[in-house]
Write a structure and sequence with these properties.
UDP-N-acetylmuramoyl-L-alanine:D-glutamate ligase, 37% helix, alpha/beta
Amino acid sequence: MADLDQLTSWHSNWDEIHALVFGLGVSGFSAADTLAELGAKTLVVAKNAEPDLLDILDVIGVPHITGDAANGVPAAVVEFKPDLVIVSPGIRPDNELLRWAAEQGVAIWVDIDLAWRLRDKTDRLAHWFTVTGTNGKTTTVQLLTAMLNQGGIKAEACGNIGKPILDVIRDPEGFDAIVVELSSFQLHYLGEIFPFSSAALNLADDHLDWHGGFEEYKAAKAKVYENTVAACVYNVMDKATESMVEDADVVDGARAIGFTLGIPSRSQIGFVEDILCDRAFLDDRANNAVEIATLEDLSEIGLLTPHLMANTAAAAAMARSAGVDPGDIRDAIRNFRLDAHRIELVAEANGVRWIDDSKATNPHAAAASLASFDRVIWIVGGLLKGVDISPLVKKNAQKLAAAIIIGKDRQLVVAALKEQAPEVPVVEILAETGQAVMDEAVAAAAKFAHDGDVVLLAPAAASMDQFKDYADRGNSFSIAARALIGGAHG
């Protein structure tokens, strides 16, 4: 078996390596494409694969096994004798092929591991900023990237945010900073990297079916802090993230930096009345603070919620760790806009606001949405991924004017509401897929909505049971809400 320890650079000898790419999503394809460019002997195994991607693999000379032939451990894989497997992060670790690879002593990497080894493709060696959390990762990554760029640090966002990290690594001009969104799946498999600064935004139940339990999920998330060079950014309001920093093995000199919605203590970033302040990255942090931005600045981004305030504080902490000037951070905040489907106002009429937070794919994210409003007609449900929704229902029962239940796991949601919020009216949507689901849900919600109410799509669940993805679910909600309002005015 080849010596993988010598593979520390883009310029290492990859020619004799037998690399198996398992899964052909965006990260799997970029891994196969990169390995082919490096000259490694590459084989792709993927149960599902887009025909266009397979055509490209044929052009670049990468063989592939797909469909039913990819089940189990194909004979061609055994004959290939892989030195390493690059696994798509959604594939569970108890998969038969991965178990076989582990038994054979074959290294199992994700694309992040490969990218770390290849980061010297150009002379512009980028600092890595890594961000994880149950909720808020994408917004924080995008904010941090904008802040770094505003401060003259050429940065690019990648990873779980959608753009494969290997595509960034292969950019011919390179970057000064790479901001990497990391899911718990990626972190589970991840080996050793040395991020400049790292952050775990929060920790709550999610993906427990995949990880096997909360402790395993927490252990995966905690890996984000390992080997951090400059700053481990944690959530003062979430003690689990602080304990993860305390337990991490970091580079000497790395600092623990907290972010909070309250008044910041020394080595923290937080809010003094309506001002975001830094008490971490200044000489006299015992007695002084530096103003970064105001709540009025943050409101330029979108609906001013506690969730947005926390994400902005976390991003600002990481930007300050890189030396970005407070004025540049403020300018980046003023010019930033949230992605669609993240607490997005999509329609308003007769005093009722229709809010799309389809990206709230777990109870923790939905809790952030619900906390932002006083009286809610809640559209909820989908694939719960093994997570108990009852605590979320109990905590928010008093603000629910009604609950409109969608999704495959709706009986679990109905049961939670019956037990934890028996006074809340419940409507089950029986349509099975697509636009019809949201047309019915919106029509049902409208019957309960009055002046001052919010109709909130914050499903607390994944979307793939009834929609292509969370964006499709959010778009369907937006279309239905606008059509209803148009009809009301027409």
